[in-house]
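Lecture 7 notes: from sequence to structure.
We start with the chain below.
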Amino acid sequence: MRKNQKVNVITLGCSKNTVDSERLMNQLLLNNCRLTDDPDKAETVIINTCGFIEDAKKESINTILNAVGLKEKGTIKKVIVAGCLSERYKDELIDEIPEVDAFFGTEEYEGIIKELNGTLKYELLGERKITTPSHTAYFKISEGCDRPCSFCAIPLMRGKHKSYPMEKLIAEAEFLAKQGVKELVIIGQDTTDYGNDLYGKRNLAELLNNLSSVDGIEWLRLMYAYPSRFPEDVIDTIANNPKVCKYIDIPLQHISDDVLISMRRGISGSRTRKLIKSFKERIPEIALRTTMLV
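Predicted C-alpha cells for the same chain:
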C-alpha cells in the first residue's frame, strides 16, 4: 500500500458496524494509511453501509452517490462500499452504481485491504482504532443470528450465529483497557446465545465474569439480549457482579400473543411479563431498555 494514502471511513447503521469500521481503520493504520474525517481531503472513501430498514438503505445509497459525485469531480480517486447493504444487494448495486470501484460484504477486511494494495495483519484483528469517547467502547462478542424472526433480515446479511472464542475476547478487552477504556458495551445480534455454537451451551454469564476480571475494566453493559429462554445465570451475574451494570437492553418488540406468534419471537406476552417481573424482583434497581414495533 502506498505510504500516507489518505482514507476516509464512513460508518452507517448500528454499533456492530462501528466495531467493524474500527477494526478496519486499525488495519489501514498498520498499512501506513492516514485517516481523515473529511471525504473532501481523502483519496479513497470507504462506506460501511446499513441495509436493515428502508430509511437506512436510503441513507446508505445517498452516501454512496455523494461519494461517487466527489469521484466524478476528481476530488477523490476511489470509492469502496462494504457492510450490510453490500452483503445483501451486491449484484443490484454493481448494476445500479457501476462508478463504485469495489463492493464487499460484512467483515471482509482482507478484501478491502487488498483492494488498497495492502496486507491484512491477521494477528492484530482484535485491535481497533477507537472512535467512541475514550472511556467506553462497543464490544462485539458474536456475529449473526439463528433466530427465525419473520420481520428481520439480519440472518440474510450477517449469517448464522457465530460466537467469538472467549480467549480472543479476553485479549481484546485487555487491549482496550490498555487504551484507557473503562466500560465495555456488550453487543452482538443476539448476546444471550453466546457460546452455544462453540461450547455447546450458552455461557454469557461466564464471559461477563471473565471480562470483569480484566484490570482496568470497571463497567460491563449488556445490550441486544433476546427475551426468549433468557439465561437465569445472567440474571444472577447482573445482580451479584459489581462490575456488571444494573442495566439491560432487551428488545421485546411486542406484547400481543397474536403478533408475537406472527413475528416468530418464541415467547408469549405472559412469559414476557414473568421475565420482567423476575428482573425487578431479583434486581430492584435495574434499568430496562427496550424496543417496540407498533
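Points to note: The longest strand covers residues 6-11. The chain has a mean pLDDT of 94.
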